[in-house]
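Handout, tutorial session.
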Amino acid sequence: MYFRDIMSLTSLKINAFLFFKLPTAYFCGVRLKSIDKHKCITTVKHRWINQNPFGSMYFAVQAMAAELTTGALVLSYIKETGKNISMLVVQQKGIYTKKAVGRITFCCTDGEKVLQALQETLHSGEGISFWMTSVGKDETGEEVSTMEFEWRVKVKN
């Protein structure tokens, strides 16, 4: 199997994708800041449009930003294979440890897990499930939430 050395998906392309295909995330302020083979970083700022009744960021907005860090990595690696591979979130877990206010930055460093899962599904032809983690921190560097997503990838026939 062949993976190119250069990631072809950029922050600009993914943010444009958000605008056209996931406008709720875009208008809530979710933005992809950087992506490479190993990690992906998104940010979202607490604003009126994404707050809950208690004056902090709504949990679903945090989940959107966290899911984007994992999903962008999966999508990037799938694109690099040149193969027709489906991807789907099958489970999600979230732990919220602090009130989310200000700019929250989510980071996923599970690129290697994606590579291994894609190699396995391309080799076996079977669907492969794997967990990825994204950690959200506020502007002081304090953790506000940790999200885990179970992804399933499978070669389409």
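The second record follows below. Compare its token runs with those of the first.
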Amino acid sequence: MPTSPDFNALVLQRDQLFSQLTNIGEMRPGSLVARFRKCGKPSCHCAKKDDQGHGPSYSLTRPVAGKTVTRIIPAGPAVQRTRQQLDQYHRFRQLVQQLVAVSERICDWQLRQAGSEAEGSKKKLPRRPPRR
């Protein structure tokens, strides 16, 4: 099957995407949210109007089997590490989408080539003389 510069560029792009996928680190899906809460003590600073409350405390939420699961992330280095894992997950999803799109274009190109080869190799059948 002969190739074209366009096809070769697609294959190169696919190979580069595979290479980038191998460099993905630890990842996790979900959303990280900083939360502030009020303790309920009337004499506490959080009871004052326009005070944001105690915090932040961080929670990671994600859907699991149709339900939202929440996990508390301790403040400090764990928050930064969780943000990096979330970033890696988003990068992974983006690379996979690109890989699927490029792969689909490669498959379409191969189908067109197979179709044009089949067209060229069809033998014309001799016509039958009409029945009388």
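Points raised in discussion: The longest helix spans residues 77-121.
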